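Sequence, please.
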């Protein structure tokens, strides 16, 4: 059975309204996306945190028994040093 012109116009109008609504959503989404700020702080930060972790481990292995708080921490010193190095790698992923 052939469609009437009124039904075809209604379908076309509905498609147009849906397309318009989708375009408005896309435009609205684009407006809300904020540009990232400056990332100049990332390289000095990840280098500092990484070196801090390495230095923590070096000091622990060389003179850990002479430093009171390090000897109290015991094996946790390894976790602290490795944690700092892991944090440095995580911070490095923010660099653009």
């Amino acid at each position: 059975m052939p469609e009437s012109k009124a039904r075809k116009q209604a379908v076309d109008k509905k498609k147009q309204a849906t397309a318009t609504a989708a375009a408005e959503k896309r435009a609205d989404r684009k407006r809300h996306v904020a540009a990232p700020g400056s990332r100049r702080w990332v390289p000095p930060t990840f280098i500092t945190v990484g070196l801090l972790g390495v230095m923590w481990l070096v000091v622990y292995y060389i003179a850990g028994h002479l430093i009171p708080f390090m000897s109290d921490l015991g094996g946790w010193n390894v976790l602290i040093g490795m944690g700092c190095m892991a944090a440095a790698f995580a911070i490095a992923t923010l660099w653009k």
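Helices lie at 5-32, 42-63, 68-73, 76-92.
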